[in-house]
Amino acid sequence: MRDALCGGPLHTQLSGTIAAPEIKVNMGSDSGKDPYATAFLRQRGYGWLLEVEEDDGEDNKPLLDELDIDVKDIYYKIRCVLMPMPSLGYNRQVVRDNPDFWGPLAVVLLFSMISIYGQFRVVSWIITIWIFGSLTIFLLARVLGGEVSYGQVLGVIGYSLLPLIVIAPFLLVIGGFEVVSTFIKLFGVFWAAYSAASLLVGDEFKTKKPLLIYPIFLLYIYFLSLYTGV
């Protein structure tokens, strides 16, 4: 100040530092959330509400795998039913020993569709006969001492409708010839009943085989009557 009053030059020296504000970045799993709410939930034992499940790429399976549908297995079983002769070399016991649901259901629905003739009530009726008819065969087989499950009977009865589906186009073509048409119907019923009975009727039945073969035969006659309208 004295220098200024005397007319001398004024020398001012300024020095110092500016402190930057401390910034904390939350890189934890609770990023983007209210820390007070997070702490409150964790103290109360509700921290699991804050957990986020990570998508696992291995869980993204194809739809057929999710529904447990094996197309190759179904195709093989179809061939086993349509060609029941042992000399062809097919392992036909796979139809009984490895039952599935989607294959027989597809066959029953296909048989229902060709049996509609404008009457949609036939579809539900055929499915009902398939379920309860198979249940009857299952109960009878168990009473006679057979070692079969309801799923096995349901699969075999469903797959064995394939012969009736095969003869359906022939019945449409030669429906006017009663003798030939009757012969084809009997052939289709015997074909279906033989395919089912050869899989369900094992050696454990011994002399009681006709007691199980006969109701299987009647069941496919009834299925055919739903198709033909007789």
From TrEMBL:
It is found in: Golgi apparatus membrane; Golgi apparatus, cis-Golgi network membrane. It is a multi-pass membrane protein. Residues 91-225 form the Yip1 domain. Coiled coil: none annotated. One of its GO terms (cellular component) is trans-Golgi network. Its main location: Golgi. Keywords: Golgi apparatus, Membrane, Transmembrane, Transmembrane helix. It holds the Pfam family Yip1. It comes from the Eukaryota. One of its GO terms (biological process) is vesicle fusion with Golgi apparatus. The chain crosses the membrane at residues 101-118, 124-144, 156-177, 183-202, 211-229. Belongs to the YIP1 family. Involved in the maintenance of the Golgi structure. This is Protein YIPF. It comes from Hippocampus comes (Tiger tail seahorse). The lineage of its organism: Eukaryota, Metazoa, Chordata, Craniata, Vertebrata.
